[in-house]
Amino acid sequence: LEKQVSLAAELEAEKSKPFARTADDQDLNQHLKGIQRWGDPMAKAGTAAATTTRPKYRGPYPPNRFGIAP
Questions:
Q1: Alpha carbon of residue 25 to chain centroid
Q2: DSSP 8-state symbol, 38
Q3: CA dist., res. 9 & res. 15, Å (int)
Q4: This prediction's pTM
């Protein structure tokens, strides 16, 4: 019964939305961002497992044009 009530509420909300959905539609964007896709190579980038910390080099290094440490 609760599923039917929530489904009816969702359908009523969808009725009030315009038929043409543009790129700046927040609901559509949130829905598409939440979908997990098979074989997505960047799927791990947002997870905590992918953001492991690596040791930093602490010694002197020659300067480079970008100012990036090794």
A1: 16
A2: T
A3: 10
A4: 0.45
